[in-house]
Each structure stands twice: as structure tokens, then as C-alpha cells.
Specification:
By secondary structure, the protein is mostly beta strands. The chain is built from one helix and 24 strands. Strands 7-8-9-10-24-20-19-14-17 form a nine-stranded antiparallel β-sheet, with no helix packed on it. Strands 12, 13, 18, 21 and 22 form a five-stranded antiparallel β-sheet that branches. The chain is globular and about 55 Å long.
Length: 290
Amino acid sequence: MSIKIENKHLSIRIKKKGAELYSLFNKANQTEYIWNGDPMFWGKTSPVLFPIVGTLKNNTYIFKDKTYNLSRHGFARDAVFELLKQTKTTVTFSLKANEESLKVYPFNFELQIKYELKKDILNVTYTVRNAGNETMYFSIGAHPAFKIPLTPNSGYDDYLLEFDTEDDIDHWPISPEGLIETKSLPLLIDSNKLKLTKNLFYGDALVLKNIPFKKILLHSTRDSYGLNFQCEGFPYFGIWAAKDADFICLEPWCGIADSVNHNNHLESKEGINKIDKGESWKRTWSVHPF
């Protein structure tokens, strides 16, 4: 089952499974911006990463001297969300802890995902609520895949990412086990533009820490189609595409995969967020397709 909301500028479609966005359609230029989810390359379109981002060391973590198993990116992306509220231009989904989730993640949580159309901008808001009686630890991240090329007049190599910073940007390599290495490598020096090529991702995602930017412009050198992406409040970022696939994932994260030397303890995990009982936590990312 899926849900559609729209205004005069945009329409979007979201699946109840994973509360996953799978269509972002610009009515002005009659263009779809989300990857089609071809399973030959990657069958997802915009999964939500919760309660972890990336891979845990040995797919396990330790909390209060107990070991838990949790697969890459967590379970929210495969869970069926409840439709909480819908208007013509907004829709909110909810996922709560249950008997199965407590076996792998011992916290009484509620995750709400709100999609909101404001003129020609889509805002996506994550709200995490601690409904338990102890401090809750979690990570969360977005993983939207945007179709490129957007038009028949351009190719993948015609696109680039332009960051709203003049700072140099490093990336952190990923080990064969999906863990973050201990030393970074340069990505951009004296430039804020990253030219996209398919072989850029043959070694997995580009992982960025302590990101110095709040906005990214994705555009082509061949035509005027593209998008503005805003990610203020997310300290980590991933840029990824499946091998030789026609998309680019722009992934704002509050959390990151384990490092190769992590001790598996959840409380000391890099980038982990915590909220006290009864409290909530909120972040929003936005996309403006043009």
C-alpha cells in the first residue's frame, strides 16, 4: 500500500513499508526525480536507517553486558509503519517498539516520519521519542536515491555536486567488512565541486564526517535540471551509488558505521545519539527539485 500527497508544484508517493519515498515528481517540468528501484542494481529508493546507520562490527553491539545482533542499517527500512495523519500536502508515519524489535534493540521507542510539501520543496522530518524509562541510544539517517541523468539530453558524467563551503572535504574509506577506517583521504581540495562518475563508487560509499556544508546543489552541465539538497543538523554524510546504476544517493546521517577498532559498546559508539525518558529528538532534511 502507498500514500500520495501533492500540491500544484510537486507530488510524492510513499510506501507504508519502511515509510519509504519512491516518487518525487515535479509538475512544472514533468520530471521524476527518484530512482526507479531496479532490483538488478538496488531494489530500494529511499530507505530510512534506524536505529543504526551502516554496519556494526561483527553485526553486534553490547548494551548492559548483553550482546545484540543487528544487521546493516537497522530494521526500520523493512518494517510496516502506521499511517498516523494525512492532509493534502502532509503525511506522517509512525513506528513503535514491539516484541520483535525489543529482541534486537532493547528500547521502547517511537519513530515518526513526516513528509511535507511547501511550495516546490519537500521537507522530511524524523522525530524520535523515548517512551521507555531509561536513556535511549540510537542513530538515524536518510538514504534517498535521485535519478541521474534526469533527461535524455544528459549523461551520468555530465552531473556534479556543488557544496556551499570553501573548506576542503575529506572522506573516510570503508573496510571490506563495512567498517570505517581510521584515516581519512582527501576528496576535494581548493574546490567545492565534485564531478560524478560511476567508478567513483566502485569502492563503496564516500563517507564524510563533521561536514562543513549545509546545502548541496546537484546539477548538469548540459541542461538546467537538478536539485538543491539541505541537510543542516546532520554531522555525517554519505554519497553512494550501486555499481554502474543511474542514480546518486545523498545521505544525511546522525550516526555512522562502527570503526574498525570499535569496542562494540553502544554507549561509546561514534556519532551515537541519546535521549532521556519522555524526551524527543528531531531533524529535517529538504529537497528542492528544479
